[in-house]
Amino acid sequence: MAAVQPLDTTIAVVTPENIAFEYQLAGPFRRLPAYLIDLAVRWGVIVAVGLAILIIGGMLSALSTFYGPLTFAFIVILIFVINWFYGTIGEAYFNGRTVGKWFCGIRVIEVDGRPVSPRSALLRNLLRIADLAPVAAINTWDPDVPPIYFIPTGIIGLVTMMMTERMQRLGDLAAGTMVVVDERKWQLPIAKVDDARVPALASYVPGDYLVTRKMARTLATYVERRHFLTPPRRREVARNLSDPLIERFEFRQDIDPDLLLYALYYKTFLADSMTEPADLGPLAGYSPLAKDADKPSGLAEPLQSEIPDELGKPAQRQPVQRRQTTQRGDVWSHSSSSAAANPPPPAPAPAAPTSDPPRTAGDGQ
Fold it and tell me: Of 185, 205, 237, which residue is a domain's last?
């Protein structure tokens, strides 16, 4: 007899940044308490505001009989707005959460992982009445109760959730949404590091430095998009994040920001899978620590980025001329190892001599 496999309630969503998020779908036993809490909140607000309107309307009715019907109209409008738009406003403007969903740890998202839009939130809440069908009349059990009171059974929504892959009710199917547990796990594609200096530089990052979830996602997004940027643009974008890190790690100011972020990315996502210690040889005695700035090293230039333009492909290193800017005091160039690996092309053959003698500086036109 085959073993019974547990029900898999997880679903993976890949974002445009090529980051895979793994969500746990929220089933009916988690969504029902959230609905009951929201129901209590809605009617609590209706009762509280309704009492305030009745009190104010009662005082105004003593002045004029016009305020009596107006008070009743206000209460009817209040009940309509709260019942129909409470869920829409909460989900659209509070990251897919209402009070009940927040309390139960679930939220609404689009099927592609994006936050739910106001249009989708409105559509799924308008169709809630269809998901709550059929309704059962209370006078079925108590004949003394008027036949105007009903209890929604929610059988339609329950059956629809059981028949769909993402546990979607009718409102979710129409709006393109799903309800997930608000504890997502995200996975990154493995990035191949071709620059041997990246692991070496990552070994200098303090071991007690913990990357936050927001920082980890920023690093992953940067690494995935950096190959669309030119090297100067990479440094400009990376500097916003690298400057505080250089100060916190007590690193030298001449480290390439792009290389530093890639090293931090390596330490965050790839270093744990490496069994051997990092080889410091590619740094040629260079130390990124500020206290070692005056010590000689085998690098003739400041540590600059030689990271491939595309992850997983060999770097196309081209020798560039050294550029100095005296006003800002910054100096950048490719490292000497790049120039050695790519020697300049041979000089072109001299042109054939002509019958005209060469001109000198004193010759005039």
Answer: 185
pLDDT in tens, 291-346: 777 765 544 455 555 544 444 343 443 433 333 333 333 333 333 333 333 444 44
Q: Examine the domain organization and report whether 232 and 115 are in the same domain.
A: no
Kindly state whether residues 143 and 271 are assigned to the same domain: no
Residue the block writes with tokens 């059956």: 159
Tally of structural domains, the chain: 2
Q: Tell me, yes or no, whether 125 lies in a domain.
A: yes
Domain containing 45: what range?
Answer: 10-185
**Does residue 355 form part of some domain?**
no
Residue 361 included in any domain: no
22 shares its domain with 70: yes
* pLDDT tens-digit readout, 53-110: 888 877 877 666 667 788 888 889 999 999 999 999 999 999 999 999 999 999 999 9
